[in-house]
Each structure stands twice: as structure tokens, then as C-alpha cells.
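At this stage, I wrote out one protein's amino acid sequence and its C-alpha cells, and that material follows here:
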Amino acid sequence: MLGVAGAIVFPRLARAQDVPEHNRATLSEPPPRPPLGTGEERARRLFDAIVHDDPARADDFFLSRDAFRLIKAVPDPDPLWERLHAAYVRDIHALHGATTDLDRASFARLRFTGRRGWVVVGEEANRLPYWAQRHSLLDYDVGGATRSIEVRTMITWNDEWFVTHLSEFRRGT
């Protein structure tokens, strides 16, 4: 949100100094796109959550409420975060039910696709910029064959990757 003088106004409980360097609204150009980094281990936990039908195992791979509050340029971002997080939990349960051979499956890797880009201030109702990675693939092996589960949208916060949409998100869900 822009204030009277055009400065960015942050929601209550959030402070400008809480914004990481690579997510600052004042950036004149995108920082280097971060590598997967610790996202690989969180992706492993996401796969484990799907295998065991236990979304809590991968809660740290979902963008935190605090970061979401800083990013979104809406008066009260909490209800939207809650809907997105609830969809993430539902998606993990649905993937557990729909994915065959999980008892024989093992995590292989999280693979970025070419669908990525820098999201500037003002896009997607955001007050802060970030890198977005779309349609990544969580690869796993079953009996020597590689299979994949799509991870719809990941974004960066403080040079780390987090899921915001495991599957396609529809407003009102």
C-alpha cells in the first residue's frame, strides 16, 4: 500500500526493517535468482508429508504468515493466507490419496522448470518484489521409474524458496 507521500505502508505487526535485502521495494533491478538451497530439504519433507498424509511435516515449506503480511498489499492479508494455507493442506491430503505406489516411492529431487520470473511491486497485489518459480516438479522414484508431482508456485523470501500454491488456486476456495 502506498501512503500519502507515496511511501510504502506496512500492515500492523510488520516493520520495514523486517524486509530482507532481496525483497526491498526500492530495488531498481532484480537480484540474482537464488538457487534452490535449503528448499531441497523442505521439498523432501513435502514429499514425506504426501507419503504419510501429514501436512504438518511440510509446514515450513509454505510461505510464513509473517512474510505474507509484508508482501501482500491488501488491508488484511491474514484471511487470504489462511485460504492459501488451507488449500496447501488439502492438496497434500489429495495427493496422498491420488498418488499410487507411495509405499514404494522415494524422493529424488525438486526440479525447477523454465517458468520463472521477477515479480515487481504492484503485480499480483504485492507491495514487495520476489522471484517466482512456476510449475516446478517434485520428482520421485518407484521401482526405477521417475514420476513427478507438480508444485504450482514457489516464491523467494530472503533468498529462500517457499510454496504459495501446491496446485492451481481458485478464488473462493
About this structure: The chain has a mean pLDDT of 89.
